[in-house]
Amino acid sequence: LATTLKICDTWAARVLATLVFERFATREGKRSRSKVFLTNVENLMTRWKLSYHITYNKDFSYRVLTKNPTSTIDSLAKKEGFRYAVTGQAAKDIKKGRVPNDPVQIFVMTGDGPDDIHTLLNKLEDKYDLIPTHKNPNLIILEPHVGEGVFFDSVAVNGIVCVSDLQIELDTHNMTGGAK
């Protein structure tokens, strides 16, 4: 599990122990070779959703002067070497083969340190004409408050990287018309 999720063994063991303690899972066998079975998935998802909200992520609103902000960010990510993934309703639309409506929410991470998102955004504003705005943005860049976790199981759909269905569920559950 730790290898698959790219987390340390201790953290994986702690998560599993908590799941068992909270009665969301049962464990059979010896610790190092035990099998874990989720027993209360619906309640686990409900508790997870209650402990997370997309507004915990710092957001930066922009107006992009192109018709498709997702393609613009994809192109800039390749040029500037940052990681991104579309989330929210835009990711749902892209996965269904539709063009997303404004505003598009995109997680962005540089991986170089906590201040690098600001350095990157300043560069994108200066070099590529991303226009900061508080009124009618068509692009919302999100700095993930939990780090790499939002990128787990992300997929490319027609070249555009989208978060996993689970992340979309977490990001849209408190919004009007959010996922059930």
Describe this structure in words.
The protein is of the alpha+beta class and 180 residues long. Helix content is 38%, strand content 21%. The chain has seven helices and nine strands; from the N terminus they run ααββαβαβαβαββββα. It has helices spanning 2-5, 9-21, 41-50, 69-80, 88-95, 116-128, 165-172; strands at residues 25-28, 35-38, 58-63, 83-87, 104-109, 131-132, 139-143, 155-157, 160-162. The strands form three sheets. The chain has a five-stranded mixed β-sheet with strand order 4-5-7-3-6, with helices on both faces. It has a two-stranded antiparallel sheet with strand order 1-2. Strand 1 and strand 2 (35-38) form a beta hairpin. The longest helix is centred in the first third of the chain and has 13 residues, at 9-21. It is elongated and about 60 Å long. The protein starts with a helix and ends in an 8-residue tail after the last helix.
